[in-house]
Structure formats: C-alpha cells, structure tokens
Amino acid sequence: MTRTALITGITGQDGAYLAKLLLEKGYEVHGLVARRSSDTRWRLRELGIEGQIRYQEGDLADACSIQRAVIKSKPQEIYNLGAQSFVGSSWDQPVTTGIVGGLGVTHVLEAIRQFCPDSRFYQASTSEMFGLIQAERQDENTPFYPRSPYGVAKLYGHWITVNYRESFGLHASSGILFNHESPLRGLEFVTRKVTDAVARIKLGKQHELRMGNIDAKRDWGFAGDYVEAMWLMLQQDRADDYVIATGVTTTVRDMCRLAFSCVGLNYEDHVVIDPQFFRPAEVDVLLGNPDKAARQLGWKPSTSLDQLIGMMVDADLFRVGRE
Predict the structure, then answer these.
(1) Is the pTM of this model over 0.85?
(2) CATH superfamily to which 4-180+221-244 belongs
(3) Which of 13, 107, 121, 203 could form a disulfide with 184 if both were Cys (CB 3.0 to 4.6 A apart)?
(4) Catalytic residue among 79, 128, 267, 303
C-alpha cells in the first residue's frame, strides 16, 4: 500500500532532498507551499521532481491552512522542515522567526492530535540550540543554550514536540541536525557563499570574498545523507530525539582553504575579514556526537567534507559559467 507523506518546507534544501528520497521509496508526497510572488520551486526542478509533488497551499503561521493540508493529504508521515532558517536574518526578523519556528510547530502538532493522531511526526531541530556549548561534544543529553532568535525559536519547537509526545502519545521525533550543506543551499549560507565566490573568482567575475569569523568551528555534512536519518526516525517503533552529525569539526578557515584549493587558488589571496559579518552573539564551536543515531537507527554519513565542498564548487562553476 502506498504511503503518504506531507512535507512543510518542501521548497527548501532539506525538503527537496527528502521529497526525492521518499519518491524513490514509492511514497505519495504532498508539499506545503506558501503563496509567494517569487519562484520557490527551483530546487525541486533541479532534482527533476517538481511535477511529482502534490502541492497543498498553506503557511505555518496559519493554523487553519495547516489543518486543511493535513485533512486533504491524509499523511502517515509528516515532516516539519519549514522555518525562517537563516540564523543571521533571525536578528532582523525575530518575531517572524519565533512565530514560524515555534508557534508553527504547535499548529502542526495540534492538527495531528485532532485529525490524524496515528501519523508519525518529524521536527527539524538544530545544533544552534546548543549555542554556547556546555559540553565538548554535543549529544541528546547536552544542555541547550541558544545564542540567536533562530536557536530560541527552534528550542521552543523542540520542546513542544517532546511535550506532545509525552502528553498525548504522538509518535513525534526530533532530529537535532548539525550543519548540512549541498549545491541546493541558499547563497546566504556560509558554505554556498564561499563556493559561489570561489567560482566567480576563478572565472574572473569577482576578486575577493568578504567574511566574518573564519575561526568558528562547525560540524558539516551533506544534506542528502541527513534526510535519510529523518526518514529512519519515523520507521522506529518508538519516537525519540537524535543528534545527526559527522562527529568532525572544521573551522570556516579550513573550509575556505579546501574550497579555493579545488580550483588551484590560495584562500589567503582572496579572503578579507569584514567586521560587519560577525554575528551579535557568536557560536564559536559546534561538534555533534551521532553515536545514538548510529546505534539505534543504523545511520552514518557517507559523504566527506572534501567530497561535499568539491561537489558544491563544481556545481557553482557550472552555474556561474552559464550566467
């Protein structure tokens, strides 16, 4: 029997990769899309799946539209990936970030509780909830200390998911995902900012790359690997929370070095430190411990950082070269 999934945030990086994975597994995939004047489905076209999605119009800030989407799609699995997902913008839009990242999760959980309580729910939590880290390696038991409106909003979404699971018996799991990137990442994110600049500098369309704190450390993986972990969580008999990470931390500086080396350039000749790109409350180090996911889900990343950055540089060279 064909299973049905509803994905909020389907037009984002993770939503697109997850939709592709579920379609390959034979799912009927519904995607929640908000009405926008700009083109939001380009990632789905990039993966060749735009025409295979059944679209439901709605917005996480509007409870009624979430209820309609759930009633119409009748999903066995619901993946809540929708959010204002850029940490930097959360300082400029703290209220919107809080409404979508916090209240929006409650809207989905309430719709599940009232209309499809047997559905399984995935909440996209984030390593940004750890913020000012309280342990060298962060796992499911590490205390949270978010350092941005984005992290605070996600923490609300995380804990309301736990609350609905424990209060109403919903099969509701959270994936605490560390940084995960791909050629489908938005240009505002640091990895794509770097690989796009590398392509432009190599092709003579740009001369320098202005950056903030390049000594910050992050645990980077490939989004295509991480969506598999999302799916695996909803296949378990018991709902739970999982850290999804590579377990390896790398500085932004070393990521720049790696990206520029892909095209035979020295990053030091092109990277310029600009104070305007420093965040108000910087998160200096994030390093995940994915042992629980490996043990209980059988999940581990299959793409190295070298492979990931090489893939992204190649994609940006192709794209920029055609502009």
Answers:
(1) yes
(2) NAD(P)-binding Rossmann-like Domain (3.40.50.720)
(3) 13
(4) 128
